[in-house]
Amino acid sequence: MKDLRGKTAIVTGASRGLGVYIAKELAANGVNLVLAARSREQLEETRRICVAGGVKAIPVAADVTSLDDLRRLVATAEREFGAVDILVNNAGIELVASIADLSIEQIDDMIRTNLNAPIWLTKLVLPSMLSRRSGAIVNVASLAGKGPVAYDGIYATTKAGLINFTQSLHLELKGTGVTAGVVCPGFVSDAGMWANHAATGARLPWTMREVSPARVVRGVMQAIRGKPEVLVAQPGIRPLLAIGELIPGARLSVVDRLGVTRLFREEAERLALGEDRKRAPAPASERGEAAGEGAVAVPAPQPEQPPARTE
After folding, report:
1. What is the pLDDT, as a whole number, of residue 236?
2. Of 121, 223, 250, 305, which sits with the fewest C-beta atoms within 10 Å of its C-beta?
3. What are the residue ranges spanned by the domains of the chain?
């Protein structure tokens, strides 16, 4: 999709994190916006920023794990703007913990938010796009979906599934006028999930330097314009990913040598101990609100507590 002015986009996770950056860039390109998240009050601030650029924007309070809410979201967009031209599935949550320590409810919550919801919402907007032979679907995944991540395995699994779903859809859509693209950010500064880890003292291995929110947004815009996959990471990570593809048995040792396993193990242990609960920033997202890598990582609660959510 080349000419974006006057088009309409749904952006999930639009009240905080990367979602705000994505919405602002779309508004700067003349795109009208349907902004989705659970908190209408926080969405209102994003709406005010976007309409200042001269576009129309409406907030829709919705939980992306609710199929009824997603149907209402699409119906509202079509009623207000006539059609959905662009879908940016940006919502996501992350729970850093060993799989043994996660509850079934927490695992289900991540799968429904990070994987089921983008698939459902794509299904809801796709028929209209196909009938008009025009549309762009963009899923914000993660570099974590490119390989194993200990102590973040469910999150990584959902992102791997989202990457595969998008690429499969891309192949199905050839020749239809509709495109599907996936954006895979690494650690993101300021607005990404990593910002929440870094605020509590965690430090990245030198091989995994942060990328800026602006770079992720550029990736989203490339995907909207038809690029099927955009990897947003430091250049040095690409050869390492290639080694993992060429020599699958080397992938696990590469991850260990990069220090990723140690990083997430230490983070899971610290969160489990609750060392930062008094000084940690307020969660940066709602379930169904935060941007892929823009969602907040939260500690896994004890079994007797309700499932963790990014509220």
Report:
1. 60
2. 305
3. 8-298
CA–CA separation, 49 and 4 (whole Å): 19
User: What is the token pair recorded at 164?
Assistant: 């595969």
Q: Nearest to residue 117, comparing CAs of 139, 144, 142? A: 139
Q: Which amino acid is at 103?
A: S
**Active-site residue, selected from the candidate residues 155, 165, 187, 194:** 155
Is 155 one of the catalytic residues?
yes
Q: Say which DSSP state 228 is in.
A: S
pTM metric for this prediction? 0.83
CA distances (Å), origin 5, targets 2, 46, 303: 9, 19, 49
| pLDDT(199) > 70 | no
According to DSSP H, which parts of the chain are helical? 18-28, 40-51, 67-81, 104-111, 117-132, 153-172, 193-198, 213-224, 237-246, 251-258, 260-273
Other CB atoms closer than 10 Å to residue 69's CB: what's the count? 18
Percent of the chain that is helix, strand, coil (3-state, to 5): 50, 15, 35
